[in-house]
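Consider the following assembly input.
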Amino acid sequence: MSAPLLDAHLLVDRGGFRLDVPLCVAAGEVVALLGPNGAGKTTALRALAGLLPLTDGHLALGGVDLDRPSRRAWTPTERRGVGVVFQDYLLFPHLSALENVAFGPRRHGADRRAARRSAHDWLARVGMAEHADRRPRQLSGGQAQRVALARALAVEPALLLLDEPLAALDARTRLDTRAELHRHLAAYPGATLLVTHDPLDALVLADRLVVVEEGRVVQEGDAATVTARPRTDYVARLVGLNLHRGHADGHLVRVADGLTLTVADRLDGDAFVAFRPSAVALHPARPEGSPRNTWAATVAGVQRHGDNLRVRLDGPIGVAADVTPPAAAQLRLAPGQPVWAAVKAAETHAYPAG
Amino acid sequence: MSAQRPRRVTAAVAVVAALAFVVGCGGGSASGGGSAGAAGTVTVFAAASLTEAFTRLGRDFEASGGTAVVFNFAGSAALAAQVNQGAPADVFASAATRNMATVTGAGNADGDPVVFVRNQLVVAVPKGNPQGVAGLADLTRPGLKVALCAEQVPCGAAARTALDAASVAVTPVTLERDVRGALSKVRLGEVDAALVYRTDALAAAAEVTAVEFAESARAVNDYPIVVLRNAPNPGGARAFVAYVRSERGRAVLAGAGFRAP
Amino acid sequence: MTRTHGVRARRRGAGVPVALLLPAALGLVFLVLPLVGLLARTPWATLPERLAAPGVLTALRLSLLTATLATLLCLLLGVPLAWLLARVEFPGRRLVRALVTVPLVLPPVVGGVALLLVFGRRGLLGGWLDATFGITLPFTTAGVVLAEAFVAMPFLVIAVEGALRGTDGRYEEAAATLGAGRWTTFTHVTLPLVAPGLAAGAVLCWARALGEFGATITFAGNYPGRTQTMPLAVYLALETDVQAAVVLSLVLLTVSVAILAGLRDRWITSP
């Protein structure tokens, strides 16, 4: 692989919070920075855009240091060639859609006519040509999002930053806009960093995921790897898996005091065990026969989950289980009720935690 | 203003005066008027040029067994208007007969006013007279900055009379609203000369030299004083007027630069 | 309330609590009554000839000119100052903000004296200005503008700073990501965003400058055609002729209210 377009190690200290995120994005690649609220995603984005200086580390774009405190290298935001689509778009309210998009080209030296022509092209590309004269307050959320994208792309940045680009949209618009955004990002030749807490956005739009928690990268890889082998509770919950860490000895993984799970994989040492909520069976009494992975649990809560019900269980390990409504009715599930949980070894997936 | 319902007007003025007093911005307005009704005080509305002399006289009057005196010093025109609007004053001392006439004309004086002092103009110049101003004619010198009072106020009218009498055409840089304004321009060095009252120049003797000139005799200001018809304390008012006109009073006024009538 | 008493809500004034309505009405009366008093005492019969009296038009023209120039001066200096106070963290910012309000607290006459002590013939800068550039400010129309600007500037700075604080600073960040430097961002994004606050501040500033009296007469003196603005003319007229003063006040009020109402309309209807 050739040298990445964006090569950064973002180190920012801010009043007790420390961001420490190495980040490389190749030209044409879309990387999603995924993490819960407060993980430092926005801090990383602001540092990349030059709205926040690094404390240490470095940030290079196309081989040029934009921010490297140790060498006192610093390029201000307006000269970085970094485009940003902000979460609430921040379209200038006093300018029309066209003028918003023309704003960047004008600042980059285009004369008024050239800037407007370019803005028109970009608006046409995002399907907003007929709304060129509208003010931001006259645009719907989805339309504003598209204008914001056109505005960021119109300066042809080397790096495009998207801050929760779909978070402000309602569910229906989000679906359409996501698909469309995917199309535009695929056509965009620069590096794209997408900041989001929505796993679906990340999975659909990004080639690679970088998961941050509490300022650190906890997992990185393509979507298939990350979803198949989550390494933190957060990722596991994002992809809908039960995840437990334990100590493996052959086919046995001890995940809690008094609970050792039998797994299909064979491994030794620290390990993760993952299984889907639908793999967890619930019984009113200790099941007959020989399923080895059974334990006594207590119902902590019941919620609708698609067509099924998702049951949260307390016990030696906290687990989510999906049951059908008839089964739930039969079990008379209610918080506080004791049940027996069972997972077949074949439905588990174990992998090293080291 | 008709004198048909002075009570209500008085009450209104008292309220306004009290308000002004409370919020502490009563500059120039009827400050001190609020206590006028109290027994044993005399409220004196006096022209601003009498400030130093009357303040001293008031203290002497109190010390010599008289009642307490409360002063309201302001421009004579403003005072006359306040009196005619029913302000609770006992005595009115004006710097011009014209303003006194508006009070007597409205029937607000008790008896006839008497002229108790006279004032006349001098040329006030910065201490030591650096420009060597010797008389009115020097005021036309090019480059010499002169302040006069506006003709609408007594010192301005007097200056006009004096200048006309001397056939001198002065182009002032400013026409001040009162004699203190003109004098302060000299004190701050913004003008080289100003036509002001002798008393004012004397009060500022530390910074200002007074140059007398012959034509000032043609523009003498008479200061009349009178007890007001609606005086809350007519006895005290008469005693104060008598004290002003006594030998002791005349001495204090002469010390301030006033001439006897 | 609207849901349960739909019929009542349709009636005029319904839903406005008396506790607010009463003081509001009193406040309005308090503000308008002096105007009524002025109108009641206006000598309508002799109004035309009084208006035609020499000096009235001169003073009015000078007032409008100096108030407008003072407002421009305040915009030129006050908007950057407001921006600094709203957007830049620097040591002593609280103190600077307090200093900006000094002219509000200072009696205008004292302000005028203070200006003399700086720009006067013997002032801190006045002597140097005169010796170097031959500029003297006291007793000149420029002096009037200076005095008015001194007194009126806080109104502009406070209004614009408030407007700046009320706008989302991230618009400026967005402008930076699009390649706009700080100055371009200021002129193309920040100023348009605070335009309503700016307009309100400029109006307050202009109105205050128009009514300025104390600092003007102290610093610039009073001379017809050069430094005698309407408030000075009113004051002096008051000394001799109350009716003339009433007429002058009325002229000043009418012209200023007409201008302000006209401007307001324009701003509201502009897109």
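Chain A has two domains: 6-236, 240-352. Ask yourself how this observation constrains the way the partners meet.
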